[in-house]
Specification:
By secondary structure, the protein is α/β, with parallel strands linked by helices. It has a single domain, classed as DsrEFH-like (Hypothetical Protein Ychn, Chain: A, 3-Layer(aba) Sandwich), CATH 3.40.1260.10. It has six helices and five strands; from the N terminus they run E-H-E-H-H-E-H-H-E-H-E. The longest helix has 18 residues. The two termini are 23 Å apart.
Length: 106
């Protein structure tokens, strides 16, 4: 199984518009294939993408954010309630490397 991980941190306008559209298209294409799609959205991008994040979660896209940042900001429970997975970057990215996943950073 191949895994593709779009990763968004900055709230740079072109990235904010590109990543949700790309993730939605990739999700549509991967239906019926053995590819996995995980979207990491963290930091400033998290607050700027609220409507798009909820839309992607409703479509079944796995969205993940860093648990450390969520704990520091006090948003851990709210993110979990929205269906967003929380994970340590220190564990997630090495695991993706071991799985030969492709990460695209915006």
């Amino acid at each position: 199984m191949s895994t593709l991980i779009p990763h968004l941190f900055h709230d740079h306008a072109p990235s904010l518009s590109t990543l949700p559209a790309l993730a939605e298209r990739m999700h549509q294409v991967q239906n019926g294939s053995d590819a996995a799609l995980w979207v990491y959205i963290v930091g400033p991008a998290e607050g700027a993408l609220v409507p798009q994040i909820d839309s992607l979660v409703k479509q079944g896209v796995r969205l993940t954010t860093y648990i450390g940042l969520a704990q520091k900001s006090g948003s851990e429970a709210a993110l979990r309630a929205r269906g967003i997975t929380l994970e340590s970057a220190a564990l997630g990215f090495p695991r993706f490397a071991a799985e030969a996943a492709t990460a695209i950073s915006f």
